[in-house]
Mating pheromone receptor a1 (Rhodotorula sphaerocarpa), 369 residues
Amino acid sequence: MSGTAFVVCNFLAIAFLAVPTPWHWSARNTATLLFIFWCAVTIIPMALNSAIWYHHPHVRAPVYCDIVTKLRVGGDIGIPASIFCINRQLEAIAAARQAQFSGRDRRRQRLIELAIGLGFPVLIMILHVVVQGHRYDIVQGVGCIPAYYWSLPLIFIIWIWPIVFYLAAAVYAVLAFRLFVARRFQFARLLESSKSAISTGRFVRLIALSVFQIAYSLPVALYIHISQLRNQKLKAYNGWTSVHFDFNYVGVVTFADLRRVSASDEALSQLSYWSYAISCALFFIFFGLGEESVANYKRGFYGALRKLGGRRMESSAGKTGTDPVQISLPELSHAESSDFGYEHDKHPRIDASHFSGVVVTVHEDKATV
């Protein structure tokens, strides 16, 4: 694994995730915002860790590592859970089971998505301590990562849930896409009638994001777990005291240690570490390069130009308008001012709006009526 490339790509992934986020925030799509949230709380620490522990895996910042390792446990469940919520929502829309969304329906749907996409990962973060054999591990070039006690409870508390969510999300994605193809001609009207923030283009991009996320993450998760079960025998879970003995121990893995493992194990580790940056890159590809995004880029660019141009015009006007210009005009006599015929044409009206910084001096006409 190239440490420099890993650091750079992680920080680029943060930018990729940040660019389309404001538009999704304005749309208030809970499932998509949950995906953004879990990507953020995993990729930001990953980027910082890869830079902090680039040269040597020193044991430092223990409280920080306690926090970010728990966030990573939650993110490993939260990302697939949010993908499941996205596809569940898309399938419900495509099936036209919810042609009209009342305020109560929206609140209920939001609560369900928050329970699945936020509440359940937080619960797993809490339960992680059951299978946390020691405090955490530090890998050079990666930083602090969660520690697991290799046992049967680990499979049912941690391992199984990403696979379950991705498989269920894949089923919903297939159903949603099949219904979309079958009803593609009236689909735009369906979305309009449902008053959903999801347009037809966004619907397709959400399915595409889910498909690519599942196509990458599900095989990797299955391959990693099967390989680990094949290469290492599960330990017996002999109680809390036995599992958590010497709990404050921190494991350290250097580049030299990584080179001593088999090529397949090293590849598995790399696939796991790169997964967060890949998720952010996929999100940017589908939502940072679409037509809506390009239109938003243009609006922001031209808006900045207008503001910059306005400030320059004000600055220019301030410089050129300091010295007033005097124009002398004769005062009209009563006869001239009341005559709308020939005499009125002798003194046409002057539009004062054309004069900026002009002082007009009127001289009295001594002519009598």
